Amino acid sequence: MDLFTPVVKEERQHENFRRVLVPGRMSERAIVAGWAEGFQDRDKKFLNEFQTTFNSSFWEVYLYGLFKSYSFGLNWSQASPDFWLMTPYGEIIVEAVTANAAEGKEPEWDKKSLMSDEVRKKNFWPLNREAIIRLSNALSAKVRKYEDKYKKLPHVPCKPFVIAVAPFEQPDFQHQYDRAMRALLYNDYVDETAYFKDPTRFPDGPPSVRLDEIEKDNGSTFELGIFENDDWAEVSAVIFSCVATWGKAVAMSNDLREGFIMANWGTDESGKSESRKSRVGIPSEEIHDGLQIFHNPHASNPVDLRVFRRKGVVQHYLSQGVWIREGYDDCLQFRFTYASGAPFRDSPHR
Questions:
Q1: DSSP reduced 3-state for 213
Q2: How far apart are CA 67 and CA 112, in angstroms?
Q3: What are the b/e assignments for 75-84, b being 16+ CB within 10 Å?
Q4: Alpha-carbon span 153 to 146, nearest angstrom
Q5: Bridge partners for 265 per DSSP
Q6: pLDDT tens for residues 20-75?
Q7: What pLDDT does residue 258 have?
């Protein structure tokens, strides 16, 4: 499948698609094309959607490349949900979705600066609040679809059902790491704002707090802690990454050119960060780096922990009453790519 030969007129092309067509991104396009090799366009609309809406299709291509890297088999005989995986530890159904910008709010591709003033000041609450709201909407939509359609399909019942969600809901989405998702699923919010205001109060790092609920812009509220009870027992786990972006292709590319990659990596069980700088063109990541699996302790059909276990992959799960964040000591948390000249400064999804 040729993703990058335009099949729609330029005025209909998504801003991110146009940005990745420049000649200087040839090697990056080759990385993404490799992920997509063998992908089946079952409804014959994928190329059009990739070029006109981009983000959701890019996320599906990434997931397909990821699953291939695990050597999972894929059954394409059914039109939906998105992926029917054959793993050494059982079959899994995966539905992909993206969290997108609310109507009237700034889209992720329309960055006015490298980062917002609040992120620059290390006040992450506005970013995380927006992410929690938009991620909640994305997940809820897929749960409704499961109830209305998917559970009635003959190949879906009695298998783990996993929602794979990527955040593209705001320009600074790549800074959220696991903060929004931990709050949404487990009512466990890492309060970095409090920590950066006075680090001496928290010698063990940012505190975790229970927020219980979030107020939306319209004044309505919704409860946090989706996985604290069995209301969503049909959802076995959530796959998530805020760094499965075009920057991933940059970080995996081996075509040397002027530029660098700044990334934060976890270095111990607490998730303490270390900044690392690498040169563009010297591969610094693998496709799974930055991947997180949030397991539902109340799942009707749990996902075996061995399915996605790999160095660089974080798994959140409950073990004997204790929350485990496996892989926190060697995980990609954040990435920013930069290169001199136009081809890289406008890189979508840094």
A1: strand
A2: 35
A3: eeeeebbbbb
A4: 10
A5: 274, 332
A6: 998 889 999 999 999 999 999 988 899 999 999 999 999 999 999 999 999 999 99
A7: 85
